[in-house]
Every structure is written in C-alpha cells, then in structure tokens.
Amino acid sequence: MPAVDASSVAGITHWLVRWRDGDRDALDRLTSLVYVQLRQLAAALLHKERTGHTLQPTALVHELYFHLEAARAIDWQCRGQFFAISAKLMRRILLDHARRRIARKRSGGDVLPLEQEMLSIPGPDVIQLDAALSRLAQEHPRQAMVVELRFFGGLSTEEVVEAMNASGEKVSLRTIERDWRFSRAWLQDELGTF
Length: 194
What we know:
Elements: H1 6-20, H2 26-47, H3 57-68, H4 79-107, H5 114-118, H6 126-139, H7 141-152, H8 157-166, H9 173-191
Helix pairs in contact: 1-2, 2-3, 3-4, 4-7, 4-8, 6-7, 6-9, 7-9
C-alpha cells in the first residue's frame, strides 16, 4: 500500500468519525482520501485471483462502498481499522462472486469439473482460502485476523498492529510478525501454496 502523509492519516480518522456522526459530505471527503489506496488494494487482490476474472478493481471498490453503509456506526479509531473492515468486506465480495460464478457454471453446459478449474489458478483460490481461514480461525483467531488484514487488506505489519489495537486486541509488532510467519506456514500446509 502506498505511503500516506500524516495529515491524510489524521484526515481519514476525522472523516470516518464525521461520517459515523451523520455528516452526509464526510463519505465524499473520505473517498477522496482512500479511493486510490482501495483501488490499488482491489487490483492486488484480483491479481491473486484466476486469470480472466470478470470483476474489475473499480467494480470491487464500488461494491465495497455499497457494503460500507453497514459499518457506518463503528467507533472509528484509526485508518488501519477502516482498511481492516474494508479487507473483510472485499473478502466477502470476492467469495460471493466466486460462489456465484461456480453456481452458474454448474447449472450450464460443458464446464470443467471444479478440481480441474482450480489447477489453472496461480495462487490460492478465494473459496479454498476462505475455508482454510475459517479452519485457522477456529484454533487461532488472532492469526487468522492477521492473514485477513495482510492478504485481503493489504496492511503493513505496523498497520495490522494499529488496527488490532484499535479493536481492543492489544498486540505488539513482534507478536504480529510471529503470527504472520505462523499463519503463512499453516496455510502453506493446508493449501500447498501461499
């Protein structure tokens, strides 16, 4: 994720709080501060998907904004918290999109079996990754959150610490680095690639 100057970091939190408090213009101001970062994040997430993905980065960001309304009432503490929630929402959007695509293929003509289709995917498939993350979260919820924030949210290790501390989980940079190494190894074992 590109570097953001201190004034826009504070501005993001300011406009999040104003938006939560009902300021109708605040979301527009917030959008001007985060849109480029969200679009870059969407492009990076889609790059990890199979080739020929029908969802474009701009569409993913616009879909995210549609779903953000449900997060309006959150007690916003920092920009990392915003990107963490955005990461969760993007994960759900990609997962829903993948499930709809598979359902359409299963209901129509000549289609490769799901297992053969997965062989053409360069990285972990979003459905397989979601299932693996759900299993990881059952045993290691904090480590699963770290993966979600790093992989889907595109947050740096420092931003993960900030986001988790804002949500009440008090963690250090060293803890998050350990969690990231552990989670990657765990997912490598589960998925064969990560």
